[in-house]
């Protein structure tokens, strides 16, 4: 365990044991990944949908656990499933008309753990991340928020490692530019 995160080898062992019917391993597998999957989905589709989509992610994972071969870590495998769940959710949401809702950004930022300096900064950070393109947001959240390696994020996003590095670098540039625009002269800079 490092920084409160169970190592990939242990998570993968639990996944394989759960796939063979071990209920304790299944419970440990969920506990090890649930919060990270929720945070990932929260950044991709929003905190309001993250609970349901996290549940859907684990339902899909458990249906497929007996066939999990362990060619990648179980963590990467589950994040790949979560990404597909998010894509499916967005496709469905786009296909169906919805009423205009004003999100409660403070509650969303608090739920995602984004507030560090105060409510305004947390809300702004959440909004800035939400403003990134889907590809940059996925790469940024996977590597910078969840702490996945670039190789794991590349597996998750199904692209080369260099593409992940590029997306993260561009996401950082976008976030800095958007932050500067948001806290520029008209808003005044905060000094602590």
Automatic annotation (TrEMBL):
<dbReference type="Pfam" id="PF04542">
    <property type="entry name" value="Sigma70_r2"/>
</dbReference>
<dbReference type="InterPro" id="IPR014284">
    <property type="entry name" value="RNA_pol_sigma-70_dom"/>
</dbReference>
<feature type="domain" description="RNA polymerase sigma-70 region 2">
    <location>
        <begin position="30"/>
        <end position="93"/>
    </location>
</feature>
<feature type="domain" description="RNA polymerase sigma factor 70 region 4 type 2">
    <location>
        <begin position="125"/>
        <end position="175"/>
    </location>
</feature>
<dbReference type="GO" id="GO:0006352">
    <property type="term" value="P:DNA-templated transcription initiation"/>
</dbReference>
<dbReference type="InterPro" id="IPR039425">
    <property type="entry name" value="RNA_pol_sigma-70-like"/>
</dbReference>
<dbReference type="InterPro" id="IPR013249">
    <property type="entry name" value="RNA_pol_sigma70_r4_t2"/>
</dbReference>
<dbReference type="GO" id="GO:0016987">
    <property type="term" value="F:sigma factor activity"/>
</dbReference>
<comment type="similarity">
    <text>Belongs to the sigma-70 factor family. ECF subfamily.</text>
</comment>
<dbReference type="InterPro" id="IPR013324">
    <property type="entry name" value="RNA_pol_sigma_r3/r4-like"/>
</dbReference>
<keyword id="KW-0804">Transcription</keyword>
<dbReference type="InterPro" id="IPR013325">
    <property type="entry name" value="RNA_pol_sigma_r2"/>
</dbReference>
<dbReference type="InterPro" id="IPR036388">
    <property type="entry name" value="WH-like_DNA-bd_sf"/>
</dbReference>
<keyword id="KW-0731">Sigma factor</keyword>
<protein>
    <submittedName>
        <fullName>RNA polymerase subunit sigma</fullName>
    </submittedName>
</protein>
<dbReference type="Pfam" id="PF08281">
    <property type="entry name" value="Sigma70_r4_2"/>
</dbReference>
<dbReference type="InterPro" id="IPR007627">
    <property type="entry name" value="RNA_pol_sigma70_r2"/>
</dbReference>
<keyword id="KW-0805">Transcription regulation</keyword>
<dbReference type="GO" id="GO:0003677">
    <property type="term" value="F:DNA binding"/>
</dbReference>
């Amino acid at each position: 365990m490092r920084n409160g995160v169970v190592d990939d080898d242990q998570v993968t062992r639990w996944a394989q044991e759960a796939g063979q019917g071990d209920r304790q391993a299944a419970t440990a597998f969920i506990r090890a990944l649930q919060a990270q999957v929720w945070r990932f989905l929260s950044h991709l589709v929003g905190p309001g949908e993250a609970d349901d989509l996290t549940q859907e992610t684990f339902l899909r994972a458990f249906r497929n656990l007996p066939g999990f071969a362990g060619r990648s870590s179980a963590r990467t495998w589950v994040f790949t499933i979560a990404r597909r769940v998010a894509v499916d959710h967005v496709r469905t949401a786009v296909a169906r008309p919805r009423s205009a809702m004003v999100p409660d950004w403070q509650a969303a930022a608090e739920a995602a753990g984004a507030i560090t300096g105060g409510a305004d900064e947390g809300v702004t950070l959440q909004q800035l991340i939400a403003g990134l393109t889907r590809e940059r947001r996925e790469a940024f959240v996977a590597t910078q928020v969840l702490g996945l390696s670039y190789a794991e994020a590349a597996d998750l996003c199904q692209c080369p490692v260099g593409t992940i590095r590029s997306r993260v670098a561009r996401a950082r540039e976008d976030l800095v530019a958007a932050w500067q625009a948001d806290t520029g002269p008209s808003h005044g800079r905060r000094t602590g």
